[in-house]
Specification:
Radius of gyration: 15 Å
Order of helices and strands: HHEEHEEEE
CATH topology: Thiol Ester Dehydrase, Chain A
Organism: Muricoccus pecuniae
Strand order of the largest sheet: 1-2-4-5-6-3
CATH class: Alpha Beta
Largest sheet: 6 strands, antiparallel
Number of strands: 6
Mean pLDDT: 95
Strand content: 35-45%
Protein name: 1,4-dihydroxy-2-naphthoyl-CoA hydrolase
Keywords: Hydrolase
Helix content: 10-25%
Number of helices: 3
GO cellular component, one term: cytosol
InterPro entries: HotDog_dom_sf, PAAI_dom, Thioestr_dom
Low-confidence stretches: none
Number of domains: 1
Shape: globular
Length: 143
């Protein structure tokens, strides 16, 4: 993967978090922490809002984290006058994350085309172990 900047729109974590205020993202406590030259990073505590009855991270929450980062990243990589929406997402859950823990996520592009984009997100536990890997396909649509 390249480390050359791929963003077509300027953004900081603070700008992105302001845009995501009063949404599922803010309700769940997902925080975008870094806008790198070709990736986005986020963090989230794992508390009662995020767990299944067995007190581990619910897989659907991992998908929300992945879709959030992928859609935001895709929109930043799209030309002015366009935004991106998810078309398909898959996720492989590889390790449990216990309640009281936390996750970090990193999202990078596989493909940034004119009409579609594909993004992969890796979600890791606090100990660094890969908990989930997810791939999102987005449509690039006019504003």
């Amino acid at each position: 993967m390249s480390s050359a900047p791929i963003w077509k729109k300027n953004a900081t974590p603070a700008m992105l978090m302001a845009r995501l205020a009063n949404s599922a993202v803010s309700h769940l406590g997902i925080e975008i922490t870094e806008v790198g030259p070709d990736y986005l990073r986020a963090a989230m505590p794992v508390d009662h809002r995020h767990v299944q009855p067995w007190r581990v991270l619910h897989g659907g929450i991992s998908v929300v984290v992945s879709e959030t980062l992928g859609s935001v990243a895709a929109t930043l990589a799209a030309p002015e006058g366009f935004h991106c929406v998810g078309m398909e997402i898959n996720a492989n859950h590889l390790a449990a994350v216990p309640e009281g823990g936390s996750i970090t996520a990193e999202c990078r592009a596989f493909h940034t085309g004119r009409s579609t984009q594909v993004w992969q997100t890796e979600i890791r536990r606090a100990d660094g172990r890969l908990a989930c890997v997810s791939r999102l396909t987005c449509a690039v649509v006019p504003d």
